[in-house]
Each structure stands twice: as structure tokens, then as C-alpha cells.
Amino acid sequence: MNITTEQLTKIHPGGRRALDAVDLHIDSGTVGLLGANGAGKTTLLRILTGVLRPTSGRVTVAGHDLSTSAGLTAVKRTLGYLPQELALYPDLTTREFLDYIGVLKGIHDKRERRRQVDEHIAEVGLQDRARERLAGFSGGMKRRVGIAQALMGNPTVLIVDEPTTGLDPHERMRFRTLLAGLGRGRTVLLSTHILDDVAQTCPEVAVLSTGRLVFHDTTTALVSQAAGCTYLTRATGAGGPPPGAEVVSAVTTAEGTEYRIVTTTPPAGARPVEPSLEDGYAALLAADGATHHPTSTLRQ
Questions:
Q1: What is the pLDDT of residues 5-16, one digit of tens each?
Q2: Which residues contact 32 (CB under 8 A, 6 or more apart)?
Q3: Contact 143/167 with Cβ under 8 angstroms?
Q4: Using CA atoms, how far apart are residues 17 and 43, in angstroms rounded to an integer?
Q5: Are residues 179 and 59 in the same domain?
Q6: pTM assigned to the model
């Protein structure tokens, strides 16, 4: 019940390395996958789900070797996957859609398929909407249907891509609560660019930067990357943030603009504060950028 990659590399036509010798091992529980656009997150997910073949390296998912046809078939049958854009059939009801997914996943016994449909509809809280057509569902409800279809077949590994993008705050809170419970008894890999999703649902995190795995540890350990170097500082008039600092956030008030920064050389008057996950992520990328990309800065 795990995900393992060994020296996983993907080179796209033209020579661009989307993944560069990634060694990653994930056991049971929920793990957040972070990285900027172009870091390689989508490529990694597509390889793990069997959609894309790597250039080199080895991948096993739930004990199945994806380099073999038998392993690839087994993973596609048993792995649960919620892509960022899930194609629903608007004329089908929730029950009809999940029953159809069950057939695709090889659940041929009608009683078992019906049992799983009922179980997963209840798990995502859609009992009252089970016989309604998907065309009338909100974005949050469609995401919940997406989780339910991913759970058909009772997979031991679940991969979720950007699940809360575009949701309103209320739906996002409900969805985070749902995600938090999915890691019990299975491996969940949650890819997102929303750090709060990881902070509230993932005890462990992996970070990709330009195709390389630059961090894999507890979420608390990522926060500690910014320990002792997170500050609040205020600029008045036309003043901007201190040069050389990573700006995590900026809030404009009548007294000027208050910047939350990560730096080892704070300006005069800066007030130290306890770091957050966002601060730790900024510090990690800044350190990586200082070595590999001298001109890069964080943009959140």
C-alpha cells in the first residue's frame, strides 16, 4: 500500500526534463505534493496513474510495477484518481455515474457495485442528491462526486489533483474535512498549489522544483525551514519590501504596507514572528533558487 519511484526521469521532446531522477517513497496516510507551475507535479501524477510512460526509472504503485503490462493494468483497475478536470456525464444521476465507473473498474457483480455506490455516496455526503442529474450540481458537489468515483473499487492508493481549485470558502472547508479522513487505511497523494489544503489535511509533504525532489518530510519540518528568519516589516510612502527578502504576503493599511518576509538579514525594526507553512515553503524555494536559479523569487 505505497508509492515508490526510483530515479524516475521524464524528458519531453526537445530535451526538457520534466522529472529528473526522482526517488520518492510514500507509505500509508495523506501526503501533500507541492511545487510551482512547471515543477513536474502533473507529469509525476500522469506517470503514477499509468497515463504517461517515463523515459527511465522504476515506478511501483501498491506493489504493481508499472513497467509491465500486467502491473499497468492492475494499477488502472485499482487505483483511485481524481484529476483536476473530471469529465462528468451531465445527463446521468449520481448513482448512474458511479455505477458506470464501477463497471469500468471491473466490478461486475451488480449487488457489490450497488453496495459500493451507496457506501461512497454516503461517504461524500450526497445521499439526498443521489438521484439528481449531475448537470445541476455546484462545483463543490461535482468534486465530491469525483471523490466518490475515485473510491469505487475500494483502492488502497488514491491520487487527487488540485481538488479545491475554484471552490468557494465554504465548499473548500467541507472538502478539506472530507480529504482529511481519506488517509485512514490507504495512501493518498494530494497535489495542490494551495498551501492551506496541505496545512489542514497532510501530515507529510513532498516538494518538486524544476523536476527535482527537493524536500520530503513532515509538514512540521517544512514549516521549520523558516524558523528564525520570518519577520513582519512596514514600508511607508513609496517604500517597497527590503531587497533580497522573500515576500510571503503584503497587506496595505493607512499606515503603509506591512510585508511578511523570509530573510536571514532582517531590516531595522522588523519584528520576528512564528513561521507558517507558507513561510517554510518560501524559505525552501529561496534556498533552492539560490543554488540553482539565482534570479528566481517566490510568487504566491
A1: 999 999 988 888
A2: 190, 191, 192, 197, 198, 201, 202, 204, 205, 206, 219
A3: yes
A4: 10
A5: yes
A6: 0.86
